[in-house]
Amino acid sequence: MRTVFFISDRTGITAEALGNSLLTQFPQIDFKRVNLAFIDTQKKAQTAAQLIKEASETDGQAALIFSTQVSNEYRHLLENSGGIIFDFFETYISKMEKILETQSSHEMGLSHGVGNKNTYSGRIDSINFALNNDDGLTTKNYETADIILTGVSRSGKTPTCLFLALQYGIYAANYPLIDEDLDTSKLPNALKGFKNKLYGLSINPVRLQNIRDVRRSNSGYASIEQCRKEVRRAEDMFVQNDVPYIDTSHISIEEIAGRILQKSKLERRY
Amino acid sequence: MRTVFFISDRTGITAEALGNSLLTQFPQIDFKRVNLAFIDTQKKAQTAAQLIKEASETDGQAALIFSTQVSNEYRHLLENSGGIIFDFFETYISKMEKILETQSSHEMGLSHGVGNKNTYSGRIDSINFALNNDDGLTTKNYETADIILTGVSRSGKTPTCLFLALQYGIYAANYPLIDEDLDTSKLPNALKGFKNKLYGLSINPVRLQNIRDVRRSNSGYASIEQCRKEVRRAEDMFVQNDVPYIDTSHISIEEIAGRILQKSKLERRY
Fold it and tell me: Residues that bind ADP, according to the entry (chains A, B) (predicted)?
């Protein structure tokens, strides 16, 4: 067992994301992860250093520290804890200062928070858009949508729309393909005027069955025949109408959203 | 103008997050940001290198490249583009190999996607939980909730719940405090049995007025008197009942979620 600390003066999401990406390159090792967020006072930095020291002693080997710590002073405290530090700021800031021929501000907490009001309100607007235009609740705002996802029930439309809103500020609506839509391979009326905004989600029928079975066990809705039929007809509709689509069976929400963004050449709003 | 490229063999979210954090340390410089995601073939890497070359020529100075590129081969292509590369993988992987006394796998795409099925389904469950238990829609699942956010209308409950679900897999419900709840400083009946799961959101009344005014202009709901009254009474209720609360006026959704997580000592589910 080797303890890994993610330490940041803010949420620690960036330190965690990059740190975890690096750790996946060592699947043979069993890591214990500890996230210490908002380490923004000397006292908190001292406490963090103490925790690192104790973990290193317990493990019998130095803990790893992934940090995005802007303050030199607090970073030194972490460095002297007995752990091995990978500081994502320190590594790059001095190289960047040289290349950009200027000093960095060394201010904490700049990447989020105050001063971001437009981004913040904008993203709340995007989330509200996703919620108000989820699951075909209404189809009257498609003029305003950046993208309209469509696919059968449980193909991943809602979480993908919410992720597009939260991460990129995209206005994403979604429209579920139900039995009556799937009787023909023509686009449903509500979608006809918005062909250039459509993106299809498809899914492996067995995976779909598994997901639906959790919701409504042993129902017709969750039967493999129904799942196969719906997926086949939905894909026929996508192909027939030149709607691009993605198979969501084996990829994460982040990746579905990222690929859709890339393929449809959408820019983040915020 | 200086062009900055974020390049990854996956979504590029990590490269963007860390790269942007670093760029905020240089507020005096005007950066143009380009995100190139899913650079996972030699051809795509060559195209990326060409774009970097052209941007550097147009700007009259070398573009910056923030990259999380696992493949050495593709990284070399980027290095030879004339841009200056900050590769978050290369910098750390060899140091980690030495410390961990083992080889890294150097496989692309490990941080997301296939193999993460439990995490993926888990987070979808969390998102569904947030959606089904949003805005007091129902109060019957509070037994299952990890946390229940409460506050006046438009204090940020829904986006915070969704972010807790998406980022951390937390089961987060939310309950809106309406006029009749605020007639007294006692907890609403629906919340009484769950005091240890409650977290309050508060907000500056002027900011609340601005937000509400966009929704329902010049309404009683958006009047400053109404906003002041609701916020004051909600805070009284939090204090009276020892419910911890956070002012959401000037911080991002990530930070609200991060601070709540830290204060309530909740662990991520996925």
Answer: 151-158
